[in-house]
Every structure is written in structure tokens, then in C-alpha cells.
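Figure caption, in words: inputs first, then the predicted bound structure.
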Amino acid sequence: MAKQFRIAPSILSANFAKLGQEITDVITSGADIVHFDVMDNHYVPNLTIGPLVCEAIRPVTDAIIDVHLMVQPVDRIIPDFAKAGANIITFHPEASNHIDRSLSLVRDLGCKSGLVFNPATPLSYLDYVMDKVDMILLMSVNPGFGGQKFIPSTLDKLRQARARIDAYTEKTGREIWLEVDGGVNAANIAEVARAGADTFVAGSAVFGAGKDTDPNRYDSILSSLRAELAKV
Ligand code: DX5
Ligand code: ZN
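Bound structure (zinc ion present):
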């Protein structure tokens, strides 16, 4: 059976004046997940969107909303996103004082939980919490901005994360998604998939691909990403 790959456009690069329409159009064009980047100008040097925007887009789509928290601390804001309709909530281990507790909090509120690894953050944070993680997100850029260049050492790290997940799934039968975020585009997505990712965030590559009002403007970029993945 062909491997299942998921494409998660990051709305960070969408037109915020037309956010609902952007989401409808990108999902209609074949995207699987809405990647929702939350930045606080404290943990990362940029400021974006919060639970109010998540709540506003929830009725627009049935797609999974994947909330990537780049905020510190995390526990105060997690319930707000659960209430706003997030399906997945991921956070950076450095941003939580009690990682195990924050992961449990996400799960207790009915969401899937995940840890996010900056380029220099070791995977050893996973050692004692694999049972509490539904998604592992590897940053392939330093978090804070869309449109940066993919950091090549992520490929090795993806292989290591893939090995950890496969060993864990073999033992427990439970699946964990491996997502990659930053600088992913049609030129590198196949290589990134070969290194072990199954879920691909792409912001500027997707939303930069169609600036007009054509409702099908994202068809061609989504088809090229899928065509590249089909080669894997
Ligand atoms: C970066 C964000 C990413 C970003 C990806 O801090 O977490 O999700 O929007 O954008 P591109 O695909 O343009 O690198
Ligand atoms: Zn992100």
C-alpha cells in the first residue's frame, strides 16, 4: 500500500484579509490539514494569531486544525485553543516548565498532542514521553517567520525520528505522525518524505503560488506537491 502523506498549508502565508476563503480554497484544492502558527513575540520574535482566529475559522472547514504553539508559557493558552476547536496542539519543550504535564493537558482536553523540535533541540526530550505524543514536529527552519530556507541537517534528524517512531509503533501498535515545518516546497518534498516525514507543512510554497481571485489557484501547487510525493 502506498504510504499516506498529508499536506498542511501554513496559513501564516495566507491573505489574512480573506482568511476563511483562503482556507476553503486550499482545502478544496486537496490540502489535508490547516497548520495554524501561533507566535507571541517572546518565545519567537514575531506576533501572529490566537484562539479568537481559531474559533473564527473552525466553522469554515472540517479539516484538521493543527495548532503550532510558539509561545511561552504554554499551559495557560492550551485550554483556549482546545475550546476554539483545535484538533492537534503542539508546543516546544523549551517553552514548557513541565513537559509531561503539558502533554497530558492537551490530551485531557480531547486534542492530539505533539512536541516540536527546533533545529538544535535534541530528540532526547522524547525519551520518557513517547506514550503521550501523537505527533512529532521537526522544525527545518528556526521558528518565527515563513519563507526561510530549509536547513539540510533536518534530513538526518528526520531519519532518527522515523527510527524512534517505527520502533515504538512496532512495540505498541500505536501510530505517531512525523511532521516537518519550514522551507518545504516542490523541489525538496520528495527528499524530505524519503527521510521519513509523513506530514508536510508548507506556507510560502503554497500560498505564494496563487495571488489572484481564481478559486482554483492552489490546484497546481497542490498537484505538484502530490506528484513529487507519489515518486517516493
Ligand atoms: C515558522 C512556522 C512555519 C512557517 C512555514 O516558524 O512555524 O509553519 O509558516 O513557512 P514556510 O513554508 O514558508 O517556510
Ligand atoms: Zn509552524
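Helices lie at 19-28, 51-57, 78-83, 99-108, 154-172, 189-194, 204-207, 219-230.
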